[in-house]
Write a structure and sequence with these properties.
The chain is an alpha+beta fold. It has a single domain (12-172), classed as Peptide deformylase (Peptide Deformylase), CATH 3.90.45. Helices cover 18% and strands 27% of the residues. The protein has two helices and eight strands. It has helices at 27-43, 135-148; strands spanning 47-49, 59-62, 80-89, 94-99, 107-114, 116-122, 128-134, 163-165. The chain starts with 26 loop residues before the first helix and ends in an 11-residue tail after the last strand.
């Protein structure tokens, strides 16, 4: 396993649409998943999409930090792997929230996201899942799946006064 370099905003790969993964049982895919998990653990983020580490594949690894857990479905910091995920909003209701990203280090932005989503994906063993998510988990799923379509959270910010340094979040009464 290896800790991988994370690409930063401005790198052309982050603006590309990622490719569907055809072979879910490929050994190289398994190594990539292991490396992504190690990278996420080392960097301390909530999620990581393959384009962020230079691979234009529809692959996400994420975890929900303990302070955001609402159910026992996932344990604190348990990592979930999503292969070829698709997101569908459940309703039109959205909430604002502060987001940060490993590809935009030191920054945070207020982004409006759907409150509830359905996510359909394959796990790392190739099994198809459909899950509903709300709250912070729904936000993570939308954020990470945006990466698969070449979209960064900063692209969703309408008022650039809502893009700030993470160190100044305390002035906003929130943390990303």
């Amino acid at each position: 396993m290896a800790v991988l370099k994370i690409l930063r905003m401005g790198h052309p790969l982050l603006a590309q649409k990622a490719q569907v993964i055809q072979d879910l049982h490929d050994g190289e895919l398994r190594r990539l998943i292991a490396d992504m998990k190690e990278t996420l653990q080392c960097e301390g983020g909530s999620g990581l999409a393959a384009p962020q580490i230079g691979r234009a594949l529809r692959l996400v690894v994420y975890r929900v930090p303990g302070r955001h857990l609402k159910t026992n479905r996932l344990g604190s910091n348990d990592m979930r792997v999503l292969v070829n995920p698709t997101i569908v909003p459940l309703g039109e209701a959205k909430d604002p929230g502060w987001e940060a990203c490993l590809s935009l280090p030191g920054l945070a932005g207020e982004v409006w996201r759907y409150k509830q989503v359905t996510c359909r994906y394959y796990d790392e063993s190739g099994k198809l899942h459909t899950q509903e998510a709300s709250g912070f988990e729904a936000r993570i799923l939308q954020h990470e799946c945006d990466h698969l379509d070449g979209v960064l959270y900063a692209h969703h910010i309408g008022d650039m006064r809502k893009l700030i340094y993470s160190s100044e979040l305390h002035h906003q009464g929130a943390d990303a």
